[in-house]
Amino acid sequence: YMARVVRAPGGGAPKNGKLYLAASNELFMNFGQKVRFNLFDQNRAFVGVGKQWSPKLRTELGYMNHIVLRANGTDMERNHTVVLAFASDARWFGRP
Fold this sequence. Notes:
This protein is mainly β. The chain contains no helices and five strands. The chain has strands at residues 2-7, 19-29, 40-54, 57-69, 76-88. Strand 4 (57-69) and strand 5 (76-88) form a beta hairpin.
């Protein structure tokens, strides 16, 4: 499950050549008969700033707090990560 919010300063959708704010949270859960100790697996929370270069290309730079609960159900790992992401629309490569 991922929830994501993207907003330009002042509200609304990002515009070409302008900066925007982005925040997201991903929650990973285990399920099924083979889950022994924990339903929670990991969580990734992200906040950052992005730039919409064109309708088909954007970049984002931000911070991610990544928490993982190991399979033994007691050991937890916390990662603090700087994220640099590049995203493009598939149509940029000539696909419909």
